[in-house]
Amino acid sequence: MEHLCGDKLPFWDSNLTLHKHVPDLPECFQMSILPWAPCIYLWVTSPFYILYLKRNNKGYIMMSILNRIKTVLGLVLWIVCWTDLFSAFHELNEGHPKPPIYFITPLIVGMTMLLATFLIQFERLKGVQSSGVLFIFWTITVLCAIVPFRSKIILSNQENGVEDKLRFTTFYIYFGLTLLELILSCFNEKPPLFSNVVTDPNVCPETTAGFLSRMTFWWFTSMAIKGYKSPLENKDLWSLNKQDSSEVVVPSLLKEWEIEKSKALSEQRVKDQATFTKPGTGADTNHVGGNPEEAEVLLSKRKESQQPSFLRALLRAFGPYFLIGSAYKLLQDLITFVNPQFLRMLIGYTKQTDAPTWWGYALAFLMFGTSLLQTLILHQHFQYCFVTGMRLRSAIVGAIYRKALIITNEAKRSSTVGEVVNLMSVDAQTFMDLTTFLNMLWSAPLQIILALFFLWKNLGPSVLAGVAVMVLLIPFNAFIAMKTRTYQVEQMKYKDERIKLMNEILNGIKVLKLYAWEVSFKEKILQIRKKELNVLRKTAYLSALSTMAWTSAPFMVALTTFAVYVTVDKNNILDAEKAFVSLSLFNILRFPLNMLPQVISSIVQASVSLKRIKDFLSHDELDPESVDRKNNTSEYAVTVVNGKFAWAKQDQPTLENINVMVPQGSLLAVVGHVGCGKTSLVSALLGEMEKLDGQISIRGSVAYVPQQAWIQNATLRDNILFGKPYVEQRYRCVLEACSLTPDLEVLPGGDLTEIGEKGINLSGGQRQRVSLARALYSESDVYLLDDPLSAVDAHVAKHIFDNVVGPEGMLKGKTRILVTHGISFLPQVDNILVIVDGRVSEMGSYQDLLKQNGAFAEFLRNYSLEDIIEDDEMTLSVVDEEEEFPEDALSNHIDMVDNEPAVNEARRQFMRQISIMSNDVENPKNKSIRHRRCSVKKLAEPQVEKKEQKGEKLIQAETTETGRVKLKVYWEYAKAVGPLLSVFICFLYGCQSAAAIGANFWLSEWTNDEHNNQTQENVQMRVGVYAALGISQGALILGNCLLCRAYSMLKAAHATHRDMLHAILRAPQAFFEATPSGRILNRFSKDVDTIDSALPNNIDIWMRTFWYTVNVLIVCSVLTPMFLIVVVPLMLFYWWVQRFYVATSRQLKRLESVSRSPIYSHFSETITGTSVIRAYGRNDAFVLLSDMKVDENQKSYYPGIVSNRWLGVRIEFIGNCIVLFAALFAVIGKDKLNPGLVGLSVSYALQVTMSLNWMVRMTSDLESNIVAVERVKEYSETQTEAPWTVSETMPPSDWPPIGNVQFVDYSVRYREGLDLVLRNISLKVKGGEKIGIVGRTGAGKSSMTLCLFRLLEAAEGDIVIDEVKISEIGLHDLRSKLTIIPQEPVLFSGTLRMNLDPFGKYSDDEVWNALELSHLKKFVSNQTAKLNLECSEGGENLSVGQRQLVCLARALLRKTRILILDEATAAVDLETDDLIQSTIRTQFEDCTVFTIAHRLNTIMDYTRVLVLDKGKIAEFDTPTNLIGQKGIFFGMAKDAGLV
């Protein structure tokens, strides 16, 4: 430096700078280091920056005035700098040579200004609206220029004034211009041309925010204010940034995953060739040929290598972005260690009496500056991590959804809907949580190493004692983490089990109620739950231990270190500087040490999740090539050659040697007994089954009508269009052909009525016809119709056959394959295929098969041929009759409850209904009831419907919008925990932190011993008391954790779940119709999970941080009372920021959880309809829909993350101010304070930032999580149905002895405010009579049966069974004495035995007997497991007919006096139907039987027939008399061809 500046200008002079009360820097330093610093910065960063800009081109920005001014100023600065340079040359010429520095500095600075000007333009061309690099450059430049600015003024005030006038002037011009540049760089440019900012109406302001705004998250403030003024709504949310949306994120992950999979495959192939030379068959690419044992061995050998790594795919897709965040983290870690050094200087400064005061102030402001920098950097790091997490979640959910659409049936069997939804909700979430902490994996060790390095400098080798303690803790925690992991897996297993069972209970709730089985299932769930809570309890013990270990760790380390330090050497004196600097370093250590186990357990959880997700994504996919769609050569539309199919690779083949040829445009009927493989054949044609052998080809597009209609939760019209464009004419024809027109008149919104999930507000027949209409509208080439006619009435079936399927229907000329049980249509089909036990027994036209006299002829002979012939003649007459009975002929008789109020209301005018709605809006008391009535029944006009739904969400939002409700919820939770316990727990937390304060005060006393020179005498006492205080703190923590986690909070978790379960099972049927099952499941999975594990965590951390913060404020205020002046405004600001934040963040959480359940309900809906979606080739549309729902969810999640950052920056600013003032007041009062207390107050203040931040985050987490308690509470308080048992009126055990049923002036309505469905019905039925109930749709047939079970409660009148009024006894007493065979057979997963007899009341013999009578004995005894045959979810592994027979077996077992059949035989072929009817006749001979009939021939021999019309009894007499009366019944019989 001497060389550059010459001898006259010294580079450094400490007398001039450090030890002067008015310091100044030497001129050489001012000319070299200060101007060079910003230049070095810019030249180092710009190459990287330019490269980055080349990569990320955002478009091009028009030249603006701002840009022009910046560029001109840059050029002027260059000229100013070079003026100095030329003046130096000029002086050289004049003969006054200057030192080299006068040439070098202006040259360097001038070049840098040119570079800056170039960057300004380059950024404009690349679309950067606000530049961080340049902003930092101008800031450094201005800061460095402030010193010369001051020096030059001081100089000019001295006697001799300014010598170098030119340089004096140019410097001030330079300073002014750089200041201007700095101010201008705070403003933004316009957005680039053609960017989405211009096109998007609700763009996120982040895209256009400036650098400063981004660093401090200022751009979010607008939303915070909006959210504070009024609750945020969906429309207030900004649209998602393009790079976070599913359309960008998911493909990038899938691309990487595909690469991984193909890599694994190719490795496997190489291995295969090495190990296994025997050639496999061509079809079997993913199957090892040869004998199974050999294959097993090979598989196990190969397992390790062949697995594709999902982790690598994730890293490659999201790693680079994440690394930017990691870079920020590294910076922040390094800056963390600056403050303890400043603290050391500060304590040193307070010891010196003669030090200049500016030292103290400088140190205080330096501490403030570094803290501020640390804050900004930390939150940038968090932002990057959270956004990565968010993208991860989008990508994983997208990948799982796409996979779920194409997995094989076998794979579907291994992952139930519940499990997959868990993958999407819980496991994707685990990843999201992990990304926030992932950097701690390397950052924690780094921080520990740095801290130890500084500690070593401070205390020497004694630190090793402390390190030893830490090292000892590591295996202890590793052990805990391992155990926790195993418990986690176990808990997951129970949770999956519980949700799966819950899902089934919700799906079959009607059956549970009808059979009075709730108790049995409640017990099952509570058993699983008990196991789950036991695992949670074990986890809680572990977490208590680990919490204690980690909270006491810093203290134990400090204790051992100090103790060793003082005892090792007599000369070692623990003074304030050593003690408190060490303490603040130990405090820094505390965070990484605390986080490490958390991170490790997070990683453990994530690895479990990773494996689950990877396993799911590695499932086999359906082979798209198994059905050849390209074959256009043959004249056959569908051909199957030597087909052999199974549902899973290792199963027995369900269908073998199938040969089918279906000519173009013909109609093929497939017939056969229940369970012979008709549906399997259709599935095979769709490519849903594993093709073990043979070829299938189909020409052209396919339309598919499944046996059980799959209906989306959308409008009726959308269900039919299914993504095809709307063509009025064609659409009307389709409706007409499927006889849906009359139904539309009945539905409140016509074809725009919203259908509830699973088509809940349509009757079975309507669903089936909608499904048929969908196929018809799709105008495909090949139609696969799986028994669409079974669920509708005879005459509707006829209408559909004639107008749609038959030779004259809309589909003539198309290829149709029709599975059917209806014989009457067989003469009109081109070909008939008869299937027996999975083989084609014969095929040919109707006449051919009759001549062959084989199985088919036998089958027909059982049913009188006259029927059929007569049926043919009838066709003509029916057409004439339709005029007389237009409504009847086109309607259908199967109806579910749901649909009748609609019909009746429609029969009145609509105005009344609308007026009801408007009244309700005015009268808020009824609002909730009103909402129940409309929301899922969806019976209002479509416009009103929309409002209703929104209203519902708004109502939800308002309940927790005010702070007041919150306290009530906390109180609920405290009550569940136990009020006294809660207070005691809070008290313990207080004690724990008091012990901590005590220990630190004691330390500060100890350090003052050196002043009083009594260090040695007291060592024993000092160490002893310090230890005692610390250990008591540890003990308190342990006790508290055990009390809190393992006892009280689990008690609360148990109680809340039990109450909710009980309330849900007690809720009336109407509740389930009004609440989608997804919503209830969400409460049982997500919310219960929150109460189980998230809440206790939150409360624990919150309590600790709260007390810690209180401590800091107390300590600082006691030591420097002036501090109190600052505390008040700071706390006000804190409170104010928090209020803004909490209002906004809570509402965002709320919107987020509201938009989350559609993802899952759409997903479970998709899974049930995959075969339909695939058949119509609508995969991509559904994927798009799912992506949209995920994006919609992320739209509210993203502002939620940012709100945390926004808050963090502001709160930590408060913390930094506390540091500043603690230091300032320490400097001001340094004469009164001893160094120990200064150390104490500042080292505490340094910690407060962390705890303030944690506290608000925990407060908000707590607020959003406590909502779970409220949501669970809400469902525990649903209104219940009548009590299950009433002890006073309990009927005798043999009731009803005879089975007389009497309706006395009975009327019923569905809900308050709706019309009566049955009016003043009075009738008597004697024990043992058989009553058939018929009537048009909506006449109230099903309602009558539901009244018997009291699923509907009477409006007036009574039903009396054997002298007992059913309204007076308990529901279970009533329902257990009646038996119903419902319309839709519902089975639960579990053994067949459990399905028949959940309470285990009957012996095995009785069960077998029932099976024999219901014709299932042969099927069951052929199974290896016999009665323990596992039924899969919803009984999927039995055919619909078999399920119906299981329901019959249930009825036979219960054998009660009164039996109700709700058209139980719709899904069975005629032969089985006959068997069932005869079983019922013989077995229930002395019982009273009510049958809701579709096929009139089943009730022609009943004692009496009841004809209902519009809720009244129209006719009631014996069948023969009724036919004689020529009334309604006669008309129906005529239609059915029985007269």
Mind explaining what this structure looks like?
The protein is α/β, with parallel strands linked by helices and 1539 residues long. The protein contains 56 helices and 21 strands. The chain has a six-stranded mixed β-sheet with strand order 5-6-7-3-8-9, sandwiched between helices. α54 (1470-1483) links the parallel β18 and β19 (1488-1492). The longest helix is centred in the C-terminal third of the chain and has 52 residues, at 1015-1066. The chain is elongated and about 135 Å long. The N and C termini lie far apart (121 Å). The model is unreliable at 277-290, 292-304 and 864-964 (pLDDT under 50).
Strand content: 5-15%
Helix content: 55-70%
Number of strands: 21
Distance between termini? Answer: 121 Å
Report the total helices: 56
**Structural Rg:** 40 Å
List the main descriptive attributes of the protein structure presented here.
about 1550 residues; alpha/beta; six-stranded mixed sheet; 56 helices
Nutshell version of this structure?
The protein has 1539 residues and is an alpha/beta fold. 65% of the residues lie in helices and 8% in strands.
